[in-house]
Amino acid sequence: MEPTYKVRVCRGPSCGDETHSQRLAAEFHHLLEDRGLSQIEMGWHSCYGRCTKGPNVLVRKVGNEPTRRRFTLATQPLGRGAKATMYSHVITIVDVADIVTEHLEAGRIVRRLMERPSGRMQQPGQSKKDGE
Ligand code: FES
Predict the structure, then answer these.
(1) What's the structural domain count of the chain?
(2) Ligand 1, atom nearest to 21 Cα
(3) Does residue 123 lie within any of the structural domains?
(4) pTM for the full predicted model
(5) Is residue 24, in this structure, part of any structural domain at all?
(6) Residue 82 belongs to a domain with what CATH number?
(7) Domain range spanning residue 67?
(8) Which ligand 1 atom lies nearest to the CA of residue 45?
(9) pLDDT tens for residues 96-127?
(10) What DSSP character marks residue 47?
(11) Going by DSSP bridges, is the β-strand pair 57-61/40-45 parallel, antiparallel, or unpaired?
C-alpha cells in the first residue's frame, strides 16, 4: 500500500533529548495502529533548525501529483495546495491525537499547532485572519 502521508518527528538534540519527542512518536505509532492507518509512513528527522519551537512534526502528503516541494511554515503564508505542514510545540498526546484525527484522517490542517508569522501560536477558535 502506497503511503498517503509521511510524518516526520524531529529527534534532534532539542526536540529529542530535551523535550522527549520519542514519546510523541510512540503515541503516533499507537494511534495509527489503533485506527488501522497503515498507509501513513512514520519516520524521524534529525533537526529542522527550529529547535526553540519544538518538538516539531512535519506532515507531508504523498500523492501522484507532480511533486513541488512546498512547505507551510510559520514564516510563509498558508498557500493553497501546500503539500507539507510543519507543526510546532507538539507536546501533548492531545496534540498528537488532533494531528491524526484532523490532518491524517480528515485532511484538515490543525492550525492551533502552527506558528503564525508573528511567532505566536494560534489560539483555539481563532482564524488566521483574526490574529494578523
Ligand atoms: S532539534 Fe528539533 S528542530 Fe532542532
Answers:
(1) 1
(2) 2
(3) no
(4) 0.78
(5) yes
(6) 3.40.30.10
(7) 5-113
(8) 2
(9) 999 999 999 999 999 999 976 556 565 555 55
(10) -
(11) unpaired
